[in-house]
Amino acid sequence: MPEQINILVVDDESSVLEVVGLYLKREGYHVRSARDGQEALKAIWEQRPSLIILDLMLPKVDGTEIMRRIRDDEDNPVPVIMLTARGQEIDRIYGLELGADDYVVKPFSPAELMARVKAVLRRSQIGQARLTGEQKIEYDGLEIDPLTRQVCVRGKFIELTATEFNLLLFLTSHPRQVFSRDKLLEQVWGYSDYVDPSTVTVHVRRLREKVEVDPSQPRSILTVWGVGYKFDPLGVKQ
């Protein structure tokens, strides 16, 4: 299966493209590289990749604009790992808010990046992501189909990234059970090492914007202060 997976690596540093490409090929993935934003967009439209490793600081078209265009194409969601030299939390959160599934800060360990690649691919593949088998989850005002990965909220289908879908699926599969951010990283992301727990916070915020009637006053995806998050079925239908 790995040899059928196409990964696009976008970075303006030749050394990064070379090292990342080498490690990915060792894992059996097919790799395509792009050195600027225009080249990246061309590669995305020519052959929809299974995963994109994307640097934010790019010539011609920057990584944030590429993220926006990828997420605007709701019919073909592609998981994205953000690769950036920016190390401050506000920059990482900004990339996650744009729709990135994960991030790696330069300088990075190739082994760490490979672990994240495998985890993101697991989350994005339907067969791997069936946390509750093939049974639909249905509450009053919410329907989730693990097979088709479709989500209907109050009669309207919504578009979720792979990580958002898996987070919602996991929480709704355990109604009213409280999970810490570390536990969610283990269960949904597939690992907790190297990951800032704020990653969970950002994804919860994005999920609320799509599921809640009023994201500023959530009723279904709740924060349990000092502990973590839980899903309350009674809060969906308002």
Description:
The protein contains eight helices and twelve strands. The protein is α/β, with parallel strands linked by helices. The strands form three sheets. A five-stranded parallel beta sheet has the order 2-1-3-4-5, sandwiched between helices. Strands 7-8-9-10 form a four-stranded antiparallel beta sheet, with helices on one face. The protein is globular. About 3% of the residues have low confidence.
How many domains, as an integer?
2
CATH H-level name of the largest domain... which superfamily? Answer: Response regulator
Trace the largest sheet across and list its strands.
Answer: 2-1-3-4-5
Helix content: 25-40%
Give the SSE order as H and E letters: EHEHEHEHEHEEEEEHHHEE
**Class by alpha and beta content:** alpha/beta
Instruction: Just name the CATH architecture of the largest domain.
Output: 3-Layer(aba) Sandwich
Number of helices: 8
* Secondary structure tally: strands: 12
Give the uncertain stretches in residue-range form. 126-132
Could you give a short account of the major beta sheet? 5 strands, parallel
> Mean of the pLDDT scores?
85
Give the distance, in angstroms, between the N- and C-terminal Cα atoms: 44 Å
Return the CATH class of the largest domain. Alpha Beta
DSSP strand content: 15-25%
Radius of gyration based on Cα positions = 18 Å
Spatial shape? globular
Annotated CATH topology of the largest domain: Rossmann fold
